[in-house]
Amino acid sequence: MSRQADLLARESRHLAPGASEEAALGKRVFVEGRGATLRDADGAEYLDFAAGTLTQSLGHCHPEVVARLTEQATKLWNVHDFATADRAVLCELLAELLPEHLTTLAFFSTGAEVVEAALRTVQAVAEPGRNRVGALRHGFHGKTQGARMLVHWDIGDQSFAGNSVLGYAPYCYRCPLELTYPSCDVKCATLVRRHIAEKPNVSALFFEPVLGAAGVIVPPPGYWEQIEAACRDNGVLLVADEVLTGGGRAGTFLASEAIGVTPDLVTLAKGMASGFPFAVLAGRDEVLRHPRAGSAGSTASTFAANPLGIAAAHATLSVVSRDDLIGRVRHLGAMMDARLLEMHERHPRLGDVRGIGLLHGLEFVRDRHSRRPAPEIARRVYLAALDAGLRTAIGGHIIRLAPPFIIDEAELLHGLDVLDRAITEAEEAAA
Ligand SMILES: Cc1ncc(COP(=O)(O)O)c(C=O)c1O
């Protein structure tokens, strides 16, 4: 029995079910990561086009992050939310990287935790009577109960509608109104706009500027203009959940900047600290310093802003900024886009390819006419790519690609060649 098979068999006697689809299907035991490459317990290597879980913008074990974490590990790990030596420099660096109206910050440990903090904030500052929050269909915001109020899919029937109302997402490939862009006049946005104007009890709209977990849904021009105007006109706060996109992945520090929306609050996590649990809530002064927002302890928790997380975030963001890695994301993202569009022309089961920066979603379908989702093809592609040394991220019939920003061009093109062959293999097997 291989070392991996032995380890997986032993742990399976104890672990509860409920692993991600990619881990359950992939059956690998990873033991090491360097740059864009992972190694498993039997010695096989993989290019990591899922960048950890979109966390490894600098790849695995970036030497500067390792050095800072190692140094910090010998000094101090947790003093609740007392200030530590690096917290001020991290605040200053974030203030430089974020759009200039987002000057107030709070630190947390995970994506769901920071989304909960944003929910608490909007509920605290809301005028009386504004007791509902808005969200978009297909949005994903985490698995805690408050976040699940905003998410109506993902983990089976466990969503909890709570006091949220949902609007249409800009999902052109599967338009719920059965219209086509641009002749649709972005009707989905018009309906969201009307909904916002007609519902005086909504305090905030939570949204992913690019919907990541649902398969990298990128809004078309015209979508956000209408919705943002409606929120402004009706006193509804805009809360951009950039847990997945924040930190440069869209080719701008925030994806909101790329799509032209100006949020009042932003949540960031995955791209902040090279895989160390660390999350940021950034907002306008008037929201985060509102007299009702900052009650004692509202930004503190056991692991929030621990010194190791701060060190990892400061080291990560310093490299992103110093090495202009966001410019690199735009350059590599354009290469990736061109190669994927070319694949789209040749592979009939690849129904749609879309993306922004170094973040792409591939939808597999039974055929292009019906567009019926084909999770069986996506699984075959995922496994064929993994066996050939390429790790991607799978969810249902969608495969997402999000390589580290530091990947070199040859690695990127090699990974895309592997993917191309994996799609051919999956299509032939399904024929
Ligand atoms: C947009 C978005 N928000 C929130 C979350 C939840 O983050 P976490 O898994 O760290 O709780 C995720 C996770 O993928 C996400 O993509």
TrEMBL record:
Gene3D superfamilies in the record: Aspartate Aminotransferase, domain 1, Type I PLP-dependent aspartate aminotransferase-like (Major domain)
Superkingdom classification of source: Bacteria
tRNA-binding keyword on record: no
Alphabetical UniProt keywords: Aminotransferase, Pyridoxal phosphate, Transferase
InterPro entries: Aminotrans_3, Aminotrans_3_PPA_site, PyrdxlP-dep_Trfase, PyrdxlP-dep_Trfase_major, PyrdxlP-dep_Trfase_small
GO MF terms, alphabetically ordered: transaminase activity
One Pfam family from the record: Aminotran_3
Cited PANTHER family: AMINOTRANSFERASE, AMINOTRANSFERASE CLASS-III
Entry's family note: Belongs to the class-III pyridoxal-phosphate-dependent aminotransferase family.
This protein's name: Aspartate aminotransferase family protein
